[in-house]
Amino acid sequence: MLYHIFYQLLDINLFKYITFRAFYALITSFAISLILGPYVIRKLKLFQNKKGGYVREYTPDTHIAKKHTPTMGGVLIVISVLISSLLWCRLDNFYVWITLFVLVSFAIIGGLDDYIKIKTKKGLSSKAKFLAQLFVATVVSLALYYYPGFDTHLYFPFLKSVQLDLGIFYILFMIFIIVGTSNAVNLTDGLDGLAIGPSLISAAAFAIFAYITGHAVLSSYLHIPYIAGSGELMVFLMALLGAGLGFLWFNSFPAEMFMGDAGALSIGAVLGTVAIITKQEIILAIVGGIFVIETLSVILQVAYFKITGGKRLFKRAPLHHHFELKGMPEPKIVVRMWIISIILAIIALSTLKIR
Ligand code: 57M
């Protein structure tokens, strides 16, 4: 909105620049989440403790103490991103609106699950949740597919001349990426700061990718596809980064709140959507490697259990539970996952030069 007022109406050039608006989007959303945080925690606590708190069955003993930690903190992230994006993004940009739509609709699906879980201890059925995710992802994928100039090629890092045209199957691919990333972040969200750390690192890396993809000269210099208008996603992603840092302020060990499905599903879906728009889906698997590893640990655990007729590969999946049960302190597991995530983001960014 500020772009339209200060640049288009008042001719103040500074507001034209994506980088300027991106940095202030970060500061704005960080400030909002920091200021609103204590209020949101108080409200969520009141609501949740009235219902007696919530702790999953078979949770490691260390988690019993978390029984009264309020969940659904993702609401704080979503509100902060929304306000900041509406202020700092260009509001005539299709990609901004589609990403905001993903953020809000997945937050509603997740929030509904959190809400019902607190009320009835059961949550939405996993089938209903999955169908709702599929529905929104399909709407978004069709909107992107039919957007003029949409490119159905899949690009590969390191191999600038290799491209795969998926044609109409790109729609299925997009649905898979959006729903898959959404659930992968959700699976990862089991220790204080564990999901938000790699989410922030991914948002920061994709802010750089979005800027370059939306920049005609830079994208051609680095041999990556040029997607007109995608640079504006940098502003959105920096808003997400700011809101996530504000959330981490409260979610760092020992957490004062969890993001809930409202946060995990929406952040994951948004990262998937941004990777699709910037044509960096494979890079997402590298940047978001922690989410991939956590998801793979579950797949391997279940497969191994079935093949061996009851033996386990890990003490418990997803992987963070394995380390917990081995006696590793929670903050150590989390910080090590962040370290891996930072290294993966650096590897992903290095692919910009190696093409
Ligand atoms: C989300 N939710 C957390 C919190 C958070 C197929 C199977 C692998 C599914 C998986 C599963 O249900 N995953 C979904 C996991 C829960 O956190 C809440 O949920 C939100 C995210 N959706 O925001 O509201 C608990 O995690 C802890 N937590 C923190 N700090 C945080 O910042 O400490 C969360 C955020 C919270 C809190 O204790 O209550 C969760 O872990 O339940 N299932 C599992 O993860 C289960 N794994 C399992 O059964 N493995 C089997 C098979 C199926 C692979 C095996 O290994 O044999 C584990 N879940 C739990 N304990 N709770 C098992 C151990």
What topology emerges from the helices and strands here?
Blueprint: H1 2-9, H2 18-50, H3 74-88, H4 94-120, H5 126-145, E1 153-156, E2 159-165, H6 170-188, H7 196-213, H8 216-221, H9 233-251, H10 260-277, H11 281-287, H12 289-307, H13 319-325, H14 330-350
Helix pairs in contact: 2-3, 2-9, 3-4, 3-9, 3-10, 4-5, 4-10, 5-6, 6-10, 6-12, 7-9, 7-10, 7-14, 10-11, 11-12, 11-14
This protein binds Muraymycin D2 (57M).
Residues 55-56, 58-59, 63, 66, 71, 186-187, 189-192, 251, 255, 258-261, 264, 298, 301-302, 312, 316-318, 321 line the site of Muraymycin D2.
Rg, Å, rounded: 20 Å
The oligomeric status of these chains comes to single chain
- Segments where pLDDT lies below 50 for 5+ residues? none
- Report the strand count: 2
Whole-number mean pLDDT? 94
Strand content: under 5%
Counting structural domains, the number is 1
Count of separate DSSP helical elements: 14
Shape: globular
The largest pleated sheet is described as:
2 strands, antiparallel
* Ligand roster: Muraymycin D2
Strands of the largest sheet, in order across it?
A: 1-2
Question: Strand-and-helix sequence, N→C?
Answer: HHHHHEEHHHHHHHHH
Proportion of residues in helical segments: 55-70%
Structural class: mainly alpha
End-to-end distance: 37 Å
